[in-house]
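Researcher: I'd like a candidate sequence for this fold, 342 residues long. If you have to choose between options at a position, lean toward the conservative one.
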């Protein structure tokens, strides 16, 4: 009964596809900020710092989580170890991807040459909590992360996929607007910015195309009905990557194709790289947009949308967007309260 109530009256978010049995028995480990263990006699003069986040959250939320802990490692001279193998995330598969069970290694090159098997036989091992701590930054563009960003390298295959799509679908003479239109669970996420309605997004695109003289736009959205309606409105002016898109069911609650969860991460990366190539961006603030700005090598015009924030209360947050959408006369209409161009 408790599980059902949480499912329907709060946003529990995506859960791991499967859970590995961690090799130690302290169940309170990830409930505290940090835990220290002596797991063997190896590497007595080194301190390993195991960064883990299970079940984790969106792709670039996990990325920002890692950045925060790399910053801590730099301060205290710890050796960072990213373990998304024993601590499975929402992107983990049961089989190996790119010769690894570690979800971090699916997408990024290793940041050092230490193996998990050696680390877990070592004398000094610190485990992080799986949660952001109060003093951590949620902004991957925070200046303090600048050095750490250089240590993290995306695998080349994602750049190749993005460049191939760009060369085929983007005309270099055109001015392209990048549109990040979030929906799904973002509508119910606590203290996140409200996503716009389809009507608001269509009007925003029309206004920006005319005012800023964009020729086409690249649409990123995880909802099939959003894509369908915008395609119907704008036709060939709408460019989009063939990512998996959901209807009513969260993409993490089903498994419709081989390596589905890995592919969700891959598609997020590729769409982010393509957004980084756009001349302007319109969006409600998300980690994907921050990442696109981080990857971008051109000057992009910023057209942020802001419709207010959802509630901190998980029960209210689960319904507030829908109440505003269906009963605006009672709960206030969803509308832009910040200029769309700056």
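Model: Candidate sequence:
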């Amino acid at each position: 009964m408790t599980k059902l109530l949480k499912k329907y009256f709060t946003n529990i978010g995506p859960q791991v596809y499967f859970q590995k049995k961690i090799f130690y028995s302290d169940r309170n480990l990830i409930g505290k900020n940090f835990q220290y263990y002596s797991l063997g006699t190896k590497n007595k003069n080194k301190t390993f710092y195991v960064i883990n986040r299970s079940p984790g959250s969106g792709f670039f939320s996990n990325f920002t989580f890692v950045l925060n802990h790399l910053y801590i490692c730099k301060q205290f001279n710890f050796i960072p170890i990213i373990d998304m193998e024993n601590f499975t995330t929402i992107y983990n598969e049961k089989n190996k991807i790119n010769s690894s069970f570690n979800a971090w290694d699916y997408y990024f090159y290793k940041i050092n040459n230490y193996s998990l098997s050696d680390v877990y036989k070592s004398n000094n091992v610190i485990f992080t909590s799986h949660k952001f701590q109060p003093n951590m930054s949620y902004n991957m563009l925070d200046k303090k992360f600048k050095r750490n960003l250089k240590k993290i390298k995306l695998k080349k295959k994602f750049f190749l996929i993005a460049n191939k799509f760009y060369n085929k679908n983007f005309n270099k003479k055109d001015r392209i607007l990048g549109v990040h239109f979030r929906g799904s669970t973002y509508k119910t996420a606590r203290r996140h910015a409200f996503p716009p309605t389809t009507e608001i997004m269509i009007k925003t695109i029309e206004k920006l195309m005319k005012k800023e003289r964009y020729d086409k736009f690249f649409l990123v959205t995880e909802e099939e009905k959003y894509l369908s309606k915008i395609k119907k409105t704008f036709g060939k002016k709408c460019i989009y990557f063939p990512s998996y898109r959901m209807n009513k069911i969260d993409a993490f609650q089903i498994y419709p194709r081989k390596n589905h969860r890995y592919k969700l991460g891959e598609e997020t990366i590729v769409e982010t790289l393509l957004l980084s190539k756009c001349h302007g961006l319109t969006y409600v603030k998300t980690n994907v947009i921050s990442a696109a700005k981080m990857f971008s090598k051109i000057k992009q015009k910023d057209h942020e949308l802001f419709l207010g924030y959802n509630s901190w209360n998980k029960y209210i947050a689960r319904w507030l967007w829908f109440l505003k959408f269906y009963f605006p006369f009672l709960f206030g209409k969803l509308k832009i309260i910040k200029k769309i161009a700056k």
